[in-house]
Design a protein that fits this description.
Elements: H1 3-20, H2 28-42, H3 49-67, H4 78-92, H5 97-102, H6 104-116, H7 122-137, H8 141-145, H9 154-164, H10 170-185, H11 198-218, H12 221-227, H13 230-248, H14 258-269, H15 274-298, H16 304-314, H17 322-342, H18 344-349, H19 351-362, H20 367-383, H21 398-418, H22 427-441, H23 450-461, H24 470-484, H25 486-492, H26 510-517, H27 524-542, H28 549-563, H29 565-568, H30 575-578, H31 581-593, H32 598-616, H33 624-629, H34 632-659, H35 666-678, H36 681-704, H37 713-724, H38 733-743, H39 749-762, H40 766-774, H41 776-785, H42 795-808, H43 815-827, H44 833-850, E1 856-857, E2 872-873, H45 876-884, H46 892-909, H47 915-926, H48 934-950, H49 953-956, H50 960-968, H51 978-993, H52 995-1001, H53 1007-1030, H54 1045-1051, H55 1056-1069, E3 1075-1076, E4 1095-1096, H56 1105-1112, E5 1117-1119, E6 1125-1127, H57 1146-1156, E7 1158-1160, E8 1166-1168, H58 1186-1192
Helix pairs in contact: 2-4, 3-4, 4-7, 6-7, 7-10, 9-10, 10-13, 11-13, 11-14, 13-15, 14-15, 15-17, 16-17, 17-20, 19-20, 19-21, 20-22, 22-24, 23-24, 24-25, 24-26, 27-28, 31-34, 32-34, 32-35, 34-35, 35-37, 36-37, 37-39, 38-39, 39-42, 42-43, 42-44, 43-44, 44-46, 45-46, 46-48, 48-51, 48-54, 51-52
Subcellular location: Nucleus
InterPro entries: ARM-like, ARM-type_fold, HEAT_RRP12, HEAT_RRP12_N, RRP12
Pfam families: HEAT_RRP12_N, RRP12_HEAT
Length: about 1200
């Protein structure tokens, strides 16, 4: 027996073994499979599985007969039939095909009821379909052609599968479609590769789709909307197209039906249903892909893909049909993209035809049509053109090169025509196509596209007549600069910066385009064409007044020219020839003399190294065009050339760095680092020694003559030393450690910080880590000795250095951790955020190192211990004991820091510490909840929260009764968010241990707090339930406020109480209030259509009888005999409602009016000042008393009043 057959049979055994394992399954159907299989195997004694296959078949077919009524051919035992069919599906896949062919009619007759019976369920049908699939795959060409003229043929079974492939049940339908795919993918041996049944299957699908499309066309829109049957019809169409995709993907779709299929699929794409359109496009994609593959595999002279493309081209819709044009164009793009993958050259040759086709649609006046046409051309150029075709010989053969040239010539001629007056309405779209063509064809666009560039250049230069195309024209010119290089574009469109005229128009507008689109070009273009312009313009600048407009314009042009230099330095193709000593020295002198140019020149120098290094290291991907125009070998030579000049460049950069202000020289350091990467070891050592000498002299001078108020030169030189640390040879490492030992003792914070950075930077390299390990004992001593002299500003750098040393410690040198852990603990409560984060990270690193099973703590080397004390093995428990010493510290700050450190370590290492140690630590820290120190209590509360969240139920549940009283004593403390933190912990405890357990152990004095928690929880549950029912549950878009899981565990949800209270308060305050505006006589008729006009969201003003009487008795107004309103003399002094009664003059009246009038707020908006008494007169009762009470309560502090969230401190521990 050969290996393939053995592997085949092992696959059967593996599947049967899985079925046997289901004997204990909780699912009845799976258990029944195993029972049936076990029962059958009890009667099979042969160990040869190849012989057992037939025995399995006979046994299962016999059981199937028992499940079916032999007279009525109906299923009488559905469960047995389902199990047997499931097992037969497995067996048939491994059965001899000869046996399946010989017993085809008998087996199909027995399987038929499992598919056709009305009571058959989906699992049974799926299993029967699997059996039928194996049966049909085994048939030969004679059986399919029915040469024996039998009544039961494979085509009858296939017809049943086709019907099921459109079944509304998804799983049944999917199984049937997979079976049809498998049948077509495994054709019987025959003279042709096509399956005998492919035509009948394709005809069935075409007929089904055609019937559905006719049905859709017959239903009017009105009737469709009334019956709401459009979704069902669309679903049926999608089912057919899924079947079509399954057939096409096998490569068996008949060529004779391709045109009919394309026609109908295009008709489907006109639908407004996006799922229908997507399904149609999926069919097209499969069609083109398979056709292209078949043409490559079988070498067909007239490939099917080209036939399909010709069919698509022949189905061109009218250029006024906005609905069909978009869909047809989308299909065309998909076809070209799929075709280009396997036949790139043949596809490329079709591009001129597409341009001619699209010209018709671009001539349309309909915006949707010509926009779709332009997008089609852009997509074809971008996705259907292979970069390999655009190479020069010898990368491609001469015939391909000439064929591509012919295509480019035809495309350029078409584009020239598209830029004519006839297509002026879509000129913007045409320009976008041209820009895409330049970007795609790159250097192959020269010379065929030169005429196009001239036309667009004239449009941009003649700005008055073509102003509306300015943006698109600049996009084209920018693409041309990217494709052909600025030297070609400047040759056609010169800048003419000096003495421009009508004949020689100035084109300074090209400079920003050169800056944005120049890459991988010649550096000589800048040196020869642009640099002389800078000198000429600068000479003119000197003769102009300082504040003149012309001077500012010229200076802007000069700045724009300089801004192009960094982009000329990005992968320049002529770096070795153009970056001469003369040019480099000119840049160096400008670095010294012109501060404003330092950023630009440093960026350019950095780009020379950075771009070539990235290219050599494969950072730019597989770019075929770039690889031919600028091979990697040439980039390597450019780096070697720069490496030879790196020493001189670094010397200049060092000097410039020392002359630049500290807050504006980061970019210089970045440039220095790039050149340090390519500097040879000899030059590096020499440069480093020079810097070390300068540093020593600077430190000596500063020690003797300190300069106050000026940045120290030693700190600046240390920056350079730190930068060089990663790149110096190993022979310079002793000097580095000597510098570290000297500078770390400095009292200057900047110097000290840089000293620690030497250790951090050196550890980033493998060789540096080895050097650190060799000097580790000396570094440890220095770090410990300088504990008391650490400057605040350098603490974060020191902690990072301690972390680095901790990670490098060998297993027998862990005493360093014991000597420095106190400092790390205190840093966890540092004011500076970086120091706090560094403290936590270092503490975790120490914990990991102490958890090393081979670790040893040599206590004899620690001051205060007996020199004879034996070594102690390290462990996490031992580390916890060491830290526990801080709990008896002299200061509250030390105790609080230790508790915070324990919270961090418990959170990180709770699974690695034994339960006894955790309980001891918890019991100790729990006692600190009874302290009167708020600082210690706050840390203890945070530790308790970590334990409640992180430790197991078994550990924490016994501690709850004692914890609650100690915790609740801080629930009455409102400062420092104690109350909210305690409440949040209790909420978490309720979730973890259950409400009943917490309630049973809750102190009665504080039971109201627990009741409030329960009420809030119930309210939130009701609210969530209501939102789920209504379907409008809000999705929170608020991100986490915390940097890590530990911070979230400590601080998360500490504001819940206030948020809930505020929410309740807002709900009460913002509850919709509506008022009824009644007339004086008649009550409001709620059935009246005008009722809404009498509903107001503001309280209407009501007048009492006295107020109405006052108005009626006002002596100022009266009515004459004709009913006209007349004004009388001054009113009685006892009746004075004038709001400006205190005004004594016209000026005061104006001031008072301004005071009460509108004012300008943010964004110049008008707003009115709010009065504390506003609305007091609108009360229904006690109108005169209300303003008085309002003034009384203005400064009164009430117990129940709470401040809003904006007053709450967001500061964390």
């Amino acid at each position: 027996m050969d290996q393939d057959k053995v592997a085949h049979l092992l696959g059967l055994e593996e599947k049967l073994a899985k079925v046997r394992q289901q004997i204990n399954s909780k699912l009845d159907n799976q258990k029944h499979f195993a029972v049936i299989l076990t029962a059958v195997e009890e009667n099979i004694n042969n160990d040869d599985i190849s012989k057992n296959i037939i025995a399995y078949m006979v046994a299962f077919m016999s059981l199937l007969d028992q499940a079916v009524d032999q007279e009525t051919r109906e299923i009488k035992d559905l469960k047995l039939a389902s199990s047997v069919c499931y097992l037969l599906d497995i067996i048939f896949q491994y059965s001899p095909k000869k046996l399946l062919r010989a017993r085809f009619a008998e087996i199909l007759t027995k399987l038929a009821p499992c598919i056709t019976d009305e009571n058959a369920q989906a699992p049974l049908i799926r299993a029967a379909v699997g059996c039928l699939e194996s049966l049909l795959v085994a048939q030969d060409a004679q059986a399919w052609n029915n040469t024996m003229d039998l009544s039961i043929t494979p085509k009858r079974g296939l017809q049943g599968l086709l019907e099921l492939s459109l079944d509304p049940r998804p799983k049944v339908r999917k199984r049937a479609q997979d079976s049809i795919h498998a049948i077509l993918a495994n054709p019987p041996p025959a003279p042709t590769a096509e399956h005998v049944a492919s035509i009948s299957i394709a005809s069935f699908t075409i007929k089904a789709l055609e019937d559905l499309l006719q049905e859709a066309a017959a239903i009017s829109n009105k009737k469709l909307k009334a019956q709401k049957s459009d979704n069902d019809l669309n679903s049926r169409i999608i089912r057919v197209m899924r079947l079509i995709s399954a057939v096409i993907s096998t490569g068996q779709w008949p060529s004779s039906l391709s045109e009919h299929l394309c026609d109908m699929l295009l008709q489907v794409t006109k639908s407004s249903d996006q799922y229908l359109v997507a399904a149609s496009f999926d069919c097209f994609e499969h069609l083109f892909k398979i056709m292209a593959v078949s043409s490559v595999n079988f070498g067909l002279a007239e490939s099917k893909s080209l036939q399909i493309l010709d069919i698509i081209f022949s189905l061109t819709p009218s250029n006024t049909d906005t609905n069909l044009v978009g869909s047809w164009i989308a299909v065309l793009v998909k076809s070209m993209t799929a075709f280009s993958v396997h036949e790139p050259l043949e596809c490329f040759k079709k591009i001129p035809d597409i341009f001619k086709l699209m010209s018709n649609y671009l001539s349309s006046e309909t915006p949707e049509v010509y926009y779709s046409a332009s997008q089609c051309l852009i997509a074809v150029l971008t996705d259907a053109v292979s970069d390999s075709l655009l190479l020069y010989p010898p990368a491609i053969d001469e015939s391909t090169f000439e064929a591509v040239d012919d295509v480019l010539l035809h495309v350029s001629e078409t584009l020239v025509d598209l830029l004519s007056l006839r297509y002026s309405h879509c000129a913007k779209e045409v320009l976008n196509v041209l820009a895409a063509a330049f970007k795609k064809f790159r250097f192959r666009a020269n010379p065929d596209f030169i005429r196009l560039l001239e036309i667009v250049g004239e449009w941009r230069t003649n700005e008055e007549n073509f102003l509306e195309f300015r943006e698109e024209a600049e996009k084209v010119i920018g693409s041309a600069i990217y494709a052909m290089g600025p030297e070609t574009v400047l040759g056609l469109l010169p800048l003419n910066l000096e003495e421009p005229s009508d004949v020689r128009p100035g084109r300074a507008w090209i400079l920003p385009l050169i800056r944005d689109h120049t890459r991988n070009t010649t550096l000589s273009t800048f040196i020869i064409q642009l640099a002389p312009s800078i000198k000429s313009l600068e000479s003119r600048l000197e003769s102009l007044p300082e504040e003149s407009i012309q001077r500012k314009v010229l200076q802007t042009v000069v700045d724009q020219i300089w801004s192009t230099l960094p982009h000329f330095c990005e992968l320049p193709t002529d770096l070795v020839e153009s970056f001469t000593d003369e040019f480099a020295s000119e840049l160096a002198s400008l670095l010294y003399s012109k501060v404003a140019l330092r950023t630009t020149i440093c960026h350019a120098l950095k780009m020379l190294v950075e771009s070539n290094s990235a290219y050599v290291n494969g950072g730019l991907g597989d770019n075929l065009l770039l690889a031919q125009s600028y091979p990697i070998e040439k980039a390597q030579k450019s780096l070697e050339y720069l490496s030879a000049k790196a020493g001189n460049i670094l010397a200049v950069l060092f000097n410039v760095y020392t002359q630049t202000a500290p807050n504006a020289r980061g970019y210089i350091l970045e440039t220095i680092e790039e050149y340090l990467k390519i500097t040879s070891q000899t030059d590096m050592e020499k440069t480093f020694n020079n810097i070390c000498g300068l540093l020593k002299n600077a430190m000596d001078e500063e020690t003797n003559v300190p300069k106050k108020g000026k940045p120290q030169l030693s700190a600046t030189l240390l920056d350079l030393v730190v930068c060089m640390t990663k790149y110096v040879p190993s022979t310079s490492h002793p000097a580095l450690f000597s510098i570290f030992g000297t500078t770390v003792q400095s009292k200057d914070a900047l110097t000290q910080k840089r000293a620690y950075r030497i250790i951090i930077r050196l550890s980033e390299l493998e060789s540096g880590a080895e050097a650190l390990s060799s000097y580790l004992s000396d570094i440890e001593e220095i770090m410990v000795q300088n504990t008391e002299t650490v400057q605040t500003a350098s603490r974060s750098a020191r902690l990072a250095a301690i972390k680095t040393i901790t990670e490098l410690l060998p297993a027998d040198r862990l005493s360093f951790i014991v000597r420095t852990v106190a400092e790390v603990i205190l840093s966890t409560k540092d004011v500076n955020e970086k120091s706090r984060e560094g403290g936590f990270e270092t503490l975790i690193a120490m914990g990991k190192k102490m958890n090393d099973p081979h670790g040893v703590i040599k206590l004899s080397k620690i001051s205060g211990y007996d020199p004879e004390i034996p070594d102690q093995p390290s462990s996490m428990s031992e580390f916890f004991k060491i830290i526990a010493a801080g709990l008896i510290g002299e200061s509250q700050h030390m105790v609080s820091s230790t508790i915070t450190a324990f919270a961090c370590l418990v959170f990180e290492f709770k699974s690695e510490v034994d339960a006894t140690t955790l309980v001891d630590i918890y019991d100790t820290i729990e006692l600190y909840l009874t302290t009167n120190s708020k600082e210690i209590a706050k840390s203890a509360i945070g530790f308790v929260k970590v334990c409640v969240l992180g430790l197991s139920d078994d550990l924490m549940r016994p501690k709850v009764p004692e914890l609650l009283p100690k915790l609740l004593r801080w629930s009455h403390e409102h400062t420092g968010h104690f109350k909210s933190k305690v409440k949040n912990i209790i909420e978490r405890m309720v979730r973890k241990f259950g409400y009943e357990f917490i309630e049973a152990n809750f102190p009665q004095d504080d039971i109201k707090l627990l009741a409030n928690i329960r009420k809030v929880r119930n309210r939130n549950k009701r609210k969530e339930a209501e939102e789920e029912v209504s379907g409008v549950a809000a999705v929170s878009t608020k991100g986490s406020r915390f940097m890590n899981a530990f911070d979230e565990a400590i601080y998360e949800s500490s504001d819940n109480e206030n948020e809930n209270d505020e929410e309740t308060q807002q709900d009460k305050g913002k509850k919709s209030k509506q008022f009824i505006v009644e007339s004086s006589g008649n009550p409001l008729d709620l059935l009246d259509s005008q009722t809404l006009a009498h509903i107001s969201s503001t309280r209407p003003k009501k007048f009492t009888k006295d107020q109405r009487k006052k108005q009626l008795q006002d002596d100022m107004f009266n009515f004459d005999s004709e009913g006209k309103l007349i004004m009388k003399g001054q009113p009685d002094s006892s009746i004075d409602d004038d709001p400006l009664k205190s005004v004594t003059s016209g000026i005061n009246a104006y001031l008072e009016a301004v005071k009460h009038g509108p004012i300008r707020g943010q964004k110049n908006r008008l707003k009115f000042k709010k009065d504390a008494r506003a609305g007091a007169d609108n009360s229904d009762e006690e109108d005169d008393k209300l303003p008085k009470s309002a003034s009384l309560h203005r400064n009164k502090i009430t117990k129940g009043r709470k401040m809003g969230p904006k007053f709450k401190s967001r500061r964390k521990l």
